[in-house]
Amino acid sequence: MTLGHIHSMESMGLVDGPGIRTVIFFQGCALRCKFCHNPDTWDFSCGELTKPEELVKKICRFKPYFKNGGGVTFSGGEPLMQPDFLFEVLKLCKAEGIHTCIDTAGYGMGNYDEILSYTDLVLLDIKHINPTNYQEITGQSIDRFNQFLKALNKHQTPIWIRHVVIPGITDHPIHIKQLKDYINNISNVQKVELLPYHLLGVNKYKTMKLSYPLSNIPAMDKDKTAKLQQKFFGGYDYV
Predict the structure, then answer these.
(1) Before 235, cis peptide (omega within 30)?
(2) String of DSSP letters for the chain
(3) What does residue 55 show for φ and ψ, rounded to 5 degrees?
(4) Torsion-angle region of residue 188: left (phi > 0), alpha (psi -120 to 50) or beta?
(5) Residue 84's CB: how many other CB atoms inside 10 A?
(6) What mean pLDDT do residues 160-181 have?
(7) CB-count burial class (<10 Å; 0-12, 13-18, 19+) for 103
(8) 67-82 average pLDDT score
(9) Are 123 and 16 within 8 A, CB to CB?
(10) Rounded CA gap, 219 and 93, in Å?
(11) Confidence band (pLDDT; 50, 70, 90) for 239?
């Protein structure tokens, strides 16, 4: 039997896909993004061990709230790092008529064809588009991300793209223009959202006695981010 490591659950998510959503945070992530605000989700051995049926039973309690396009979003951590468990849960959710969404950085363990067959929407976090800069930011090669992107194109899965704008790293207009050109080659993108880098996760690093990689970088100006959003993506709807 496939068991999953679950970090936590949020019952009334409003920013994790369309409508009101139950958000399931998976434990475990192989990336070490310099701007990560959930370092408590990194460790694969932590979290509550859960059977697929048990998790879906909990999700089903919130079905009355899923009217008007709501559903369940699997986030993390990185849900694609528990592919077999994720697949089983997605399949059970679709059998219950629940809209399914994966919030992911696209860095997983494979099994993408089966997973995407039961996925209605992907919230795709693009860390960087340049392989060297991607590795600098995440600590990993961009190769696995490219594999997932290839699977997304194959399945024509609807995509909402998110990109964190960091002062001095990803905030230059030239970079955002290159990002726009890159996204133009991705199939079925419905929305692009630029997210201003924030400092909300710093206290977690202190609590966990970890060094915060971007301690010398201030939070991104929200107005500047909004101007970049409007200039290059015309608001939040891309199509």
Answers:
(1) no
(2) ---EEEEEEEEEESSSSSSSEEEEEES--S---TT-S-GGG--TT-SEEE-HHHHHHHHHTTGGGGTTT-EEEEEES-GGGSHHHHHHHHHHHHHTT-EEEEEE-S---S-HHHHHHT-SEEEEE---SSHHHHHHHHSS-SHHHHHHHHHHHHHT--EEEEEEE-TTTT-SHHHHHHHHHHHTTSTTEEEEEEEE---TTHHHHHHTT---TTTT-PPPPHHHHHHHHHHHHSSSB--
(3) -65, -45
(4) left
(5) 15
(6) 96
(7) buried
(8) 95
(9) yes
(10) 38
(11) very low
Confidence of residue 235 (pLDDT cuts 50, 70, 90): low
Give the integer Cα–Cα distance in Å for 151 and 171: 29
The sign of the dihedral angle between the CA atoms of 47, 107, 105, 202 is: positive
State the residue for tokens 């190769």. Answer: 143
pLDDT at 156: 94
Least Cα distance to 6 among 20, 18, 21, 23 occurs for: 23
Q: What per-residue string of b and e applies to 179-198 under the rule 16 or more CB within 10 Å gives b?
A: beeebeeeeebebbbbbbbe
